[in-house]
Design a protein that fits this description.
heterodimer; A: about 100 residues; mainly alpha; Cytochrome Bc1 Complex, Chain D, domain 2; about 55% helix; about 0% strand; globular; B: about 425 residues; alpha/beta; FAD/NAD(P)-binding domain; 5-stranded parallel β-sheet; 4-stranded parallel β-sheet; 10 helices; disordered N terminus
């Protein structure tokens, strides 16, 4: 079961992300919002209407746990088939923002 | 709806008072037309409607059903039925999208109108083209649209998929299957090699003396080491790949003699799967959004054509930098294009896109692997941020899990695009 308190802990991080976006790489590149990135995740980790059987659901996923998972995947410390490769594309801020986004789905 | 003469006249006067203002500025619902009901077009229609419920979204699709290329290799291998890869448009129609089963045969970008084969025309404020691919039939002497009935391409799923399947069923044990792979760029880069695995699965179980030859103009291909590893593990000695360097480029085919002539020499096949070179679907060419090579250059941030403003091109037809021509790429491009298109209708700046691709290949039941990446828009085009392929020598449980994930990916993308 998702723990709503964990979601609360990181709710504010979407604002630093926006801030980071303007600061990032001499502001040459803007950053996509958490929702824009998250839409990619949802294709495989879909809503229950999609009828997926094996891939873990991530809507309402506890934020702290998701941060732990994604940073673990990114570092290659957590066993994965595919998420280790995808997580390498995410910044710390994006991981925080995605965790906050999915915790509130 | 019937319009009385009086209300028509009154409407005319009201409209004339506002002449010169764009239609949307007069408060009319924006009209978005999407041509092509595959992964790109379905997703674009669905997300425009989701982001802008007041928009009139029309999806133009020639066929009543969408038969997907993903998983069509499993039909060819005898593992899945056509029913698994055949989908209707009823669900997306229930989301308030008008689905028109007709063929777009012309685009007037100045008048902002799409002409349909049935005679009607559709006015638009923004147009999305998701026409997929067309074949360059005459690229190799001897091949033609008619020849495809003898040497099926099976690169657009449907009757061609079944034709190839039936030919394999009818083939004698000890026969030779030839797969002719195309040069880059083409739809589904790992597809020919997944197909070799799937055909090998069928042959190993039913016609084990048979062999498969892959003729290729290329010297490398997608997930190559993983495919070779899987062929060696599952089908030792059955599949032979002849690269460009080895003379694998096909220079002529003869459908009557059932021969394929390559730079290294000639081979006779019992079943020949010829995958022709490709270009963007014809409507893209008619709309004036293709380049000299037949593909569509786009703005990496929005997927809007760099040739014609107001037209967005998503999916296989587009030149999307590092992104492969895949269902997932089309789906991801379409979501980002929908957001950019809606922003433009609202007079806003387009949001920063986030693109992704995942392609699973299954070469036997319970044996799958993948390539995946995330991409960003840069001034030089769409570039990969990070990604990669499944590990070589991974434990069997990983291959099994990835095969199961492939099915889940399919369920997910079908839901996101047409559900």
């Amino acid at each position: 079961m998702p723990d709503p308190r964990e979601a609360e802990n990181v709710k504010g991080v979407t604002i630093p992300l926006a801030l980071m976006a303007t600061l990032a790489a001499g502001s040459a590149l803007a950053a996509p919002t958490a929702e824009t990135i998250a839409r990619n995740c949802v294709v495989c980790h879909g809503p229950k209407e999609a009828g997926q059987l094996e891939i873990p659901k991530i809507a309402n996923y506890p934020a702290r746990k998701m941060v732990e998972m994604l940073t673990g995947f990114r570092a290659g410390q957590k066993e994965a088939t595919i998420m280790d490769r995808i997580a390498k594309a995410l910044t710390d801020e994006q991981i925080q923002a995605l965790a906050a986004y999915f915790a509130n789905q | 709806m019937r319009t009385s003469r009086r209300s028509f006249v009154a409407g005319g006067i009201a409209a004339s008072a506002l002449v010169g203002l764009p239609r949307i500025a007069r408060g009319a619902a924006p009209r978005v037309v999407v041509v092509g009901g595959g992964f790109g077009g379905g997703t674009a229609a669905k997300y425009v409607k989701r982001l802008m419920p007041e928009a009139e979204v029309t999806l133009v699709e020639r066929d009543r059903q969408f038969v997907t290329c993903p998983f069509s290799n499993y039909v060819i291998g005898g593992i899945e039925k056509m029913q698994t890869i055949t989908h209707g448009y009823d669900k997306i129609a229930k989301r308030g999208i008008k689905v028109v089963h007709d063929e777009a045969v012309g685009v007037d970008a100045n008048a902002k109108k799409v002409t349909l084969k049935g005679g009607a025309s559709l006015a638009y404020d923004r147009l999305v083209l998701a026409p997929g691919i067309d074949f360059v039939w005459d690229a190799v002497p001897g091949y033609s649209e008619a020849a495809a009935e003898i040497m099926p391409h099976a690169w657009k799923a449907g009757p061609q998929t079944l034709l190839l399947r039936k030919q394999l069923e009818a083939m004698r044990d000890g026969g030779t299957v030839i797969i002719v792979a195309p040069a880059n760029p083409f739809r589904c880069p790992p597809g020919p090699y997944e197909r070799a695995g799937m055909i090998a699965w069928y042959l190993k179980n039913h016609k084990p003396k048979s062999k498969i030859l892959i003729f290729d103009p290329k010297d490398t291909f997608s997930k190559q080491a993983l495919f070779f590893e899987s062929y060696e593990n599952l089908y030792p000695g059955m599949i032979q790949w002849i690269s460009g360097k080895q003379g694998g480029k096909v220079t002529r085919v003869d459908p009557k003699a059932m021969t394929v002539e390559a730079e290294f020499g000639e081979e006779k096949g019992d079943v020949i799967n010829f995958i022709p070179p490709q270009r963007a679907g014809k409507i893209a060419q008619l709309a004036g959004v293709t380049d000299e090579k037949g593909w569509c250059p786009i703005d990496p941030k929005t997927m809007e054509s760099t040739k014609v403003k107001g037209i967005y091109v998503v999916g296989d037809a587009s030149i999307a930098g590092a992104m492969p021509k895949s269902g997932t790429s089309a789906n991801s491009q379409a979501r980002n294009a929908a957001a950019a298109l809606v922003a433009s209708l609202r007079g806003q700046e387009p949001p920063e896109p986030s693109y992704a691709n995942t392609c699973y290949s299954i070469v036997a039941p319970g044996y799958g692997f993948s390539v995946t990446a995330m991409y960003a828009a840069t001034p030089e085009g769409i570039k990969e941020i990070a990604g990669g392929v499944s590990r070589l020598k991974a434990p069997a449980k990983d291959r099994d899990l990835e095969a199961a994930y492939a099915y889940d990916w399919y369920r997910g993308i079908m839901y996101d695009a047409l559900g």
